[in-house]
Amino acid sequence: MTLNAANGAPGIESPAELARLLDQETYLADEGLATAGYLALVMRRPLFLEGEAGVGKTALAKALAQVLGAPLIRLQCYEGLDAAQALYDWDFPRQLLHLRAAEAAGVNDVGRIEGELYDRRFLLARPLLQALETVPSVLLVDEIDRADDEFEAFLLEVLSDFTISIPELGTVRAAEPPVVVVTSNRTREVHDALKRRCLYHWLEHPSYAREVAIIRRRLPAAAGRLAGQVAHAAQRLRGADLLKPPGVAESIDWTEALVALGARELDPETAAVTLGAVLKYREDQERVVKNGLAALLDGG
Fold first, then answer.
1. Is the per-residue pLDDT at 1 higher than 60?
2. Tell me: the pLDDT tens digits for 150-162?
3. For the chain, which terminus, N or C, has the lower number of CB atoms within 10 Å?
4. What is the pLDDT of residues 3-49, one digit of tens each?
5. In a domain, 49, yes or no
6. Does 54 map to a domain?
7. Nearest to 236, CA basis, from 226, 248, 245
8. How far, in Å, CA of 152 to CA of 192, rounded?
9. How far is Cα 46 from Cα 155, in angstroms, rounded to an integer?
10. pLDDT by residue (tens digit) across 70-103?
11. Which residues contact 114 (CB under 8 A, 6 or more apart)?
12. Within a domain: residue 149?
């Protein structure tokens, strides 16, 4: 699906229309998030999503890619990530094979051989280069807060003009800029310069009613009572003093585990044996069990 030249949106006339299309891809976006996503398409600006882990930042990028009919190209950030790992690299083993084949064939033109070694066929495109060369595409820069300051500055430069310089081949410019979604779990503060380049939206944990709707949308096999009990318990867990409170992703995982066990409702015994689907730290599980699973589920 190509972007509409008039406003940058793929035939999407309003935030409500985008929300409807996302809903078809089992992603329930509230008005604020749908508006931010729509404006990112219309204004051709990266969308910077910040919030706690598990609130649906990465899932939005995946749903957007499905709505646009575009491939999702993901750059997972981590400490030590550098430009070469994000941009491109040369396929050294293939270059070496080519060099040996040339020598075996008796080719003595050193300049010709060296020129062939840096041909486009030996270039390994990493996510950023892939996104610039793929039209249309959705580029997900996931967990930018895990990368170093140097990489953050480099990313800002790429997002400013969507061009990449390859010394051996020249400049690669995106024929159509990709739709860009940048996410952060806020483990550290991202520099203002990058945020200014983007449209910003903070994702909160959903309300109880929305969380029930999300669970039932993603897992239609789950009984309504079960979805309500899981959402109720998840809401309470987020208010507890835990090392890692559960996000919506964990609520969905928990419900899926319960459905796999044939559960129609959540009771203390079933909760005890499935806590690993929602709480990923031993200390958190011990604290919840100590405080009483019956009290956690009370009122669900």
1. no
2. 999 999 999 989 9
3. N
4. 454 344 557 999 999 999 999 999 999 999 999 999 999 999 999 99
5. yes
6. yes
7. 245
8. 11
9. 12
10. 999 999 999 999 988 999 888 888 878 877 777 7
11. none
12. yes
Does 114 share its domain with 215?
no
* CATH at residue 167: 3.40.50.300
Mapping DSSP to helix (H, G, I), strand (E, B) and coil, where does residue 292 land? coil
- The first and second tokens of residue 13, run together, are 């006339």
Q: Are residues 51 and 173 in the same domain?
A: yes
- Among the candidates 146, 179, 202, a domain finishes at 202
Label residue 296 exposed, middle or buried (CB < 10 Å: 0-12, 13-18, 19+): buried
Backbone angles phi, psi at 83, to 5 degrees: -60, -40
Cα pseudo-dihedral 231, 235, 241, 242, rounded to 10: 30
Query: What's the rounded Cα separation, in Å, for the pair 136 and 11?
Result: 14
- Give the residue numbers spanning the domain of 43: 15-80+127-202
DSSP class of residue 118 equals T
Distance between CA atoms of residues 54 and 74, nearest Å: 17
> Do 226 and 292 fall into the same domain?
yes
Tokens coding 158? 């790429």
* Predicted confidence (pLDDT) per residue in 222-281, tens digit: 999 999 999 999 999 999 989 999 999 999 999 999 999 999 999 999 999 999 999 999
Kindly state whether residues 247 and 171 are assigned to the same domain.
no
The three-state secondary structure class of 187 is coil
Count of domains forming the chain: 3
Q: What is the mean pLDDT of residues 171-188?
A: 93
The terminus-to-terminus CA distance of the chain in angstroms comes to 43
Q: Is residue 95 part of a domain?
A: yes
Last residue of a domain, one of 103, 122, 141: 122
CA distance 160 to 45: 10
Looking at residue 95, its pLDDT comes to 75
